[in-house]
Amino acid sequence: MEWVILSITSISFGWYLYLFYNGSNYLKNRDIDSQHFFINSTKVTIVIPFRDATEELLLWLNAFEKVKYAENAEILLINDGSVNSLLKLRKRIPLYPNVRLIDRSHQGKKKAIEVGVNLASHDIIICTDADTVPQQNWIAGILACFTSDQVQMVCGRVIPSGGYWLAQIDFLALMAASEVLIKKKLPVMCSGSHMAFRKSAFKAVEGYTGYLHFKSGDDVILLHKIKNHFGSQSIGFNDFTQASVQTPMPDTVGRFLSQRQRWGGKAVFYRDGLSISLAVVVLICALMTYGSFPVFWHNAWALGISVILIAAKILTDVVLIKSYANEMSVPVKSTQLALAVLLYPAYIAIVFMRILVNPNPRW
């Protein structure tokens, strides 16, 4: 039995290392360079679904004024059943002729996005969250990706801001892994804070039909539907300088675990072998990081192999996270990074158990 477990462990760690050992190279090699960056008059529609986020949207509108090509954007704010007053926001909107506020009943984020897509005047649609802050080249970088007719969806970089330090480091790891996989033409996940797609592609895959009853997964569901319909080459990545968005992190352990529960629950949407296999591999690697010691304690040879694989994975993760942090100019303390890597297997197990209990927590 030990050899069966060792074989499964070795295959899992080996495949993980194969995917990410050179990940830092993919982060440094940009898909978009200055040669692809030019004046672009293409019109876009920005869809922001929100609920009770007046102050966040006021800050977003201020930040958006500094974004290049902001004048080419139609902005649709989709109110998904806010309870708190939107008076301040309603008073502010008339100052922006390209901004519209659409009120809808509490039907969920995916339905709110569908409403925005149906009302959009332009084919290229950008989705983001109300609590983000876009950088100046955000729209320009996205449009540069869409210069290829083959590209139907664009994902992009997201910078974690504030919050609990473990949440920041874990988010850096997730975003780094997402970018590496997309650039390897193996798209599995992305962030709904920074994604764009062609309206025609959204219609071709019938939007979120069949998945509206799930509270989460607006980003991953659409990524997989477009990938399955148009192929992996249809997913582009916006990695241009100053083209990211910034998003706040959870400020407590409880909120951090709840957020990861929502995100981890997206794995139920996976239909292709690669994505399902990767989810299983990540779980096995997490469990066997510490599980190898009691399992192989009486087999020095097997334990030695496990320790080497675990050390190689830890080194790979550290290099990948540090590389992404440097790209995003996010300071990461070495002590916190080391502690995060050591804690990772524990909170992955906790999140996994929470997902088993409730795979579809509320948005």
From TrEMBL:
InterPro entries: Glyco_trans_2-like, Glycosyltransferase_2, Nucleotide-diphossugar_trans
Keywords from the UniProt entry: Membrane, Transmembrane, Transmembrane helix
Residues spanning the membrane: 268-290, 296-316, 337-357
Organism this protein belongs to: Thermaurantimonas aggregans
Gene3D superfamilies per the UniProt record, alphabetical: Spore Coat Polysaccharide Biosynthesis Protein SpsA, Chain A (3.90.550.10)
Domain Glycosyltransferase 2-like: 45-203
Protein name, per record: Glycosyltransferase 2-like domain-containing protein
Organism superkingdom: Bacteria
